[in-house]
Amino acid sequence: MSARTVTTGPLRHEDAARCALIERELFAGDDPWSEQAFHSELDSGNFYVGAYSDGRLIGYAGLGLTDFESSVHTLAVDAGFQGGGVGKTLLRALLARADESGLPVFLEVRTDNAPAIALYLAHGFEHLGLRRRYYQPSGADAYTMGRPANRD
After folding, report:
1. Closest by alpha carbon to 48, among 72, 24, 21?
2. Which residues are registered as beta bridge partners of 71?
3. Using alpha carbons only, how large is the chain's radius of gyration in Å?
4. Backbone dihedral region of 124: left (phi > 0), alpha (psi from -120 to 50 degrees) or beta?
5. Least C-beta-crowded within 10 Å: which of 33, 99, 100, 140?
6. Phi, psi for residue 29 in degrees, rounded to 5
7. pLDDT per residue as tens digits for the range 4-13
8. Contacts of 140 (CB under 8 A, 6+ apart)
9. Where's the N-acetyltransferase domain (predicted)?
10. Is residue 91 part of a domain?
11. CA triple 5-9-10, angle to 5 deg
12. Residues 53-97: pLDDT tens digits?
């Protein structure tokens, strides 16, 4: 496979349909977000970033911010681009935004998603708890993970 150039930038409303498609492909058993859900998230003022290859959206991530904490709302990479560092790039963009505000970051991740868990652990997250049957309708469990504020 040839090397692909991946760029990142703000997620746009015109990306919402592609986001919803990726959601349906990756999270079919767990109530994937709709196109409207992405429009709502973008309208809410949360921080969203997209990853693009040849101008096509291949991944996205979102961070909710309050005065006291931040939370990863979503992070997804098209199956054809997984394992190439796109998720790491997206996560680092979210963490940089949280660090600008000196906020801790929290998230939930399926307990059976070993690659995502490894990514989060490598970026300073720790297991905080377990949410039984968090993902619906599959009933999959989730770990709650957190990363302290970087106030450097």
Report:
1. 72
2. 64, 106
3. 15
4. left
5. 100
6. -85, 0
7. 789 999 999 9
8. 29, 30, 110, 111, 112, 133, 134
9. 6-150
10. yes
11. 155
12. 999 999 999 999 999 999 999 999 999 999 999 999 999 999 999
Q: Identify the pLDDT of residue 23.
A: 94
The label of the residue with tokens 């681009």 reads: 81
Q: Domain tally for the chain?
A: 1
Identify the CA nearest to 108 among candidates 92, 123, 125: 125
- Computed from CA positions of residues 92, 93, 98, 99, in that sequence, does the dihedral angle turn out positive or negative? positive
Phi and psi angles of residue 140, each rounded to the nearest 5 degrees, phi first = -65, 145
pTM strictly above 0.90: yes
Secondary structure class of 140 (helix, strand, coil): coil
Domain CATH code at residue 24: 3.40.630.30
CA-to-CA distance for 71 and 65, rounded, in angstroms?
7
Structural contact between residues 30 and 137, judged by C-beta atoms closer than 8 angstroms: yes
